[in-house]
Amino acid sequence: MSKVNIPQLVSILKDILPIGFNALHEPNLKGNELKYVTDCIESGWVSSVGSYVDLFEEKLAEFTGMKKAIVVVNGTAALHMCLKLVGVIENDEVLIPTLTFVATANAVTYCGAIPHFVDSEEESLGIDPIKLDAYLEEITIIRKNECFNKLTGRRIKALVPMHTFGHPVNIELLVKIAEKYHLELVEDAAESLGSYYKGIHTGNFGKIAALSFNGNKIVTTGGGGAILTNDLEIAKMAKHITTTAKIPHKWDFIHDCIGYNYRLPNINAAIGVAQLENIDYFLTSKRKLANQYIDRLSNVQGLSVYKEQEFSESNYWLNTILLDINNIYQRDEILTELNNQGIMSRPVWKSLHTLEMYKDCPRMSLEGAELLEKRIINIPSSVLLGEK
Amino acid sequence: MSKVNIPQLVSILKDILPIGFNALHEPNLKGNELKYVTDCIESGWVSSVGSYVDLFEEKLAEFTGMKKAIVVVNGTAALHMCLKLVGVIENDEVLIPTLTFVATANAVTYCGAIPHFVDSEEESLGIDPIKLDAYLEEITIIRKNECFNKLTGRRIKALVPMHTFGHPVNIELLVKIAEKYHLELVEDAAESLGSYYKGIHTGNFGKIAALSFNGNKIVTTGGGGAILTNDLEIAKMAKHITTTAKIPHKWDFIHDCIGYNYRLPNINAAIGVAQLENIDYFLTSKRKLANQYIDRLSNVQGLSVYKEQEFSESNYWLNTILLDINNIYQRDEILTELNNQGIMSRPVWKSLHTLEMYKDCPRMSLEGAELLEKRIINIPSSVLLGEK
Ligand SMILES: Cc1ncc(COP(=O)(O)O)c(C=O)c1O
Ligand SMILES: Cc1ncc(COP(=O)(O)O)c(C=O)c1O
Predict the structure, then answer these.
(1) Which of A129, A314, A337, B388 has the fewest CB atoms within 10 Å, i.e. is most exposed?
(2) Is residue A351 domain-resident?
(3) What is the CATH number of the domain that holds B138?
(4) Mutate which of A53, A79, A106, A255 to test chain B, going by most B C-beta atoms within 10 A?
(5) Mean pLDDT, all residues of chain A
(6) Residue A1: inside a domain
(7) CB B155 within 8 A of CB B92
(8) What is the arithmetic mean of pLDDT over B29-58?
(9) Does residue B67 form part of some domain?
């Protein structure tokens, strides 16, 4: 096992990338963004009422092949609502990977529920289905079609796989696990717009899913997110509770349950519509870049570049170097050197079970995730880098 | 006591207003909105990083005379954070008017706390301080500098007055009540940007306050809000928890408490900056319209138009007709007729204690609010209407 030759790594990356500073993921706003935004401002419809919200929702449903999309202020809000809509309540546990952005866990706590951390695997960088099954077999008991954690006594209500960096998780196995243990499956598809598992867009596998259109995502609205579902009843409720749960009336203000103000302003939706018009180009360009990384970095010893599984099609949102296990001690040196050289790079998130506020949450053994955390380095992945 | 002559009312309103349909409150986006938004799109900075967020926060602090403003996705989020930041936790009670938009109560529930409904008075359309004092005297007990509800056993943590339609509440008395009963004072200033109490901008009277920049507000950002405070420590914490509580680091993702993604995108802040540049004009124009309503409708018997108290300066966000008590039975007829005539009008919100999800919350007797609810009709108040 040889260590990573850092100057060689830098030199190949510099060869792939344009001269100058390369960000991790920059938005590309060169389509109709300005045109549609101008339309909003000139018509006065910048706010919640307006046609771009409807259009964006239609186009998202069409693109993902799902029945309904409900756009919201951001991916965190989308996840919060997804969990509410499948019935997560106070004191429930929700199974989530420890290796995810903190928003996944935060959304669980917004419901008064408790994150229960699950391990990840190298194949998908997402939840390890085999280990999860064995773990649930051991610690759960099913009573009246509900799953209980024998150790804490709490109900385990939902399972939230996340498609890490846009790479589809092994969702088919997770669907089976959700069925076996009577768990609601909620996909955190924040990073996986444009990613497919066996030809089906991510988000289609559970009852409901969340997207993010944050500034660093493949499609951005400044800030934004969406709830995706194939269940029309849930879609109706999603629209209702994200818009203050107001009952339509000529003038009366009657709200029939505790709602949220999670609606996406029309002006942000306008940007989203323009972005979606270019998503095929974004995906093609990002795939070109990913293939260059995979191809050219195969010459560097001591690391590999993550490649989609053969039945998956990744959006390659963030390209990922995986250090060989023996070289994890080089991670921070590589990060420092790449960043110094204007090649923006970062490690994966700190495992959530190590954060102060989540350190006492229930969890399985998390060796897979802990090791991955030391091995992952994300490298520049903007659309425009694929153009070179 | 004479009843309202509806044809006369319509005819005077038509004389004041331009020909055609008149909305309740339309945004005015004729300043630098398009210029700044274009700048965001052309520079690629539509998202959370970007200079308009900082600039908008500075300008808001300057305009309101407060030390710090922290902009967020909307007024509801701002209120939620205000309550968290003054220490409202699960099972606390929070005193709020029953006559407010539902978001005030919802924000309380997001903290796991319980709204406790308070009566309103005709003078300010906001909380009745005299009645509140008498009520708290009766039902509370102070233990170790904390206020407890003797009837429920729960702690009463905060008092949230709201400046209805931009008209300043009798805040001086409420400040005294908050002190007397050891309550945190949080101002719901969602509607009162540009409103002053004895020359001091609303929002300055408690520890923290919330603004809204929803599409119908005096200044809009599509959707948006702000937290205002004179306490620098709270301001720092507000910024931290509204931006996922991430600790600054070159690359590590460490979050030190449960945070929120409540940040306002740069593109929405850009609109806000342009809007604030014109606020003096907005306020002047709205005041002209209000004065016309007050003046001309004094000829209509059986109703009055709400006028700011002599020590207050209202932004006249929404102009308000108050039916004489004997004429409340005419409310729906007037609403129907005005709306039919293209003069958009609406009643005040349905009192929150009458909504299904809040009907079992603690409350004082609410006769003042219940009567006001039957008497109030809001009439068109857009900036451009003052130009005629
Ligand atoms: C896995 C994951 N979940 C949730 C989110 C939350 O999305 P947002 O930032 O739009 O709130 C993100 C993105 O930031 C994410 O990467
Ligand atoms: C009194 C009051 N509080 C809170 C809010 C919530 O603000 P937003 O709609 O921006 O969430 C509003 C405005 O809608 C309001 O009028």
Answers:
(1) B388
(2) yes
(3) 3.40.640.10
(4) A255
(5) 96
(6) no
(7) yes
(8) 90
(9) yes
Q: Which two tokens stand for residue A350?
A: 């700190």
Strands across the sheet containing A303-305: A303-305, A319-323, A376-379, A346-347
Do B255 and B287 have their domain in common? no
> In a 3-state reduction of DSSP, which class is residue B106?
helix
Do B217 and B126 belong to one domain? Answer: yes
Atom of ligand 1 lying closest to residue B261 CA: 11
| Number of Cβ within a 10 Å radius of residue A328 | 14
Inter-residue contact B6 to B251 (CB < 8 Å): no
B268 lines ligand 2 (CB under 6 A): no
Whether B151 and B158 have beta carbons less than 8 Å apart is answered as no
Instruction: Quick: pLDDT tens for A43-88.
Output: 888 776 669 999 999 999 999 999 999 999 999 999 999 999 999 9
Q: Could you tell me where the DSSP H helices lie in A44-128? A: 51-64, 75-85, 102-110
The answer on pLDDT for B8 being more than 70 is yes
Count other Cβ atoms within 10 Å, centred on residue B138.
10
Same domain, B210 and B283: no
Q: Which ranges constitute the DSSP H helices of chain B?
A: 6-16, 33-43, 51-64, 75-85, 102-110, 129-139, 171-180, 232-241, 266-277, 279-296, 331-340, 367-375
**Is residue B223 within 8 Å of residue B215, measured between CB atoms?**
yes
In tens, the pLDDT along B320-367 reads 999 999 999 999 999 999 999 999 999 999 999 999 999 999 999 999
Establish if A214 touches chain B: CB-CB under 8 angstroms. Answer: yes
Asked if B48 and B155 sit in the same domain, the reply is yes
pLDDT band, residue B47 (cuts 50/70/90)? confident
Q: In terms of DSSP bridges, do strands B184-188 and B208-212 run parallel, antiparallel, or are they unpaired?
A: parallel
Order of strands, sheet of A312-313, starting from the edge strand that comes earlier in the sequence: A200-201, A196-197, A312-313
- From chain B, the residues in CB contact with A49 under 8 A are 215
Cβ(B357)–Cβ(B106) under 8 Å? no
Nearest to B115 by CA among B131, B102, B130, B126: B102
pLDDT above 90 for B31: yes
DSSP string, A339-371: HHTTB--EEPPPPGGGSGGGTTS-B---HHHHH
Q: How far is B180 from chain A (nearest CA, A)?
A: 32
State how many domains chain A has. Answer: 2
Both B198 and B288 in a single domain? no
d(CA B284, CA A278): 44
Query: A217 catalytic, yes or no?
Result: yes
Cβ–Cβ under 8 Å, residues A62 and A383: no
- Write out pLDDT tens, residues A153-209: 999 999 999 999 999 999 999 999 999 999 999 999 999 999 999 999 999 999 999
Write the ipTM.
Answer: 0.96
User: Which contiguous run of DSSP H or E holds residue B252?
Assistant: none
Contact B214 A47 (CB under 8 A): yes
Q: How far apart are the CA of A105 and the nearest CA of chain B, in angstroms?
A: 9
Confidence of residue B48 (pLDDT cuts 50, 70, 90): low
With the CA atoms of A309, A310, A313 and A316 taken in that order, what torsion angle do they form, in degrees rounded to the nearest 10? 40
Q: Of the candidates A247, A277, A307, which is a domain's last residue? A: A277
Distance CA B180, CA B145 (A): 10
Q: Say how far apart CA B12 and CA B385 lie, in whole Å.
A: 14
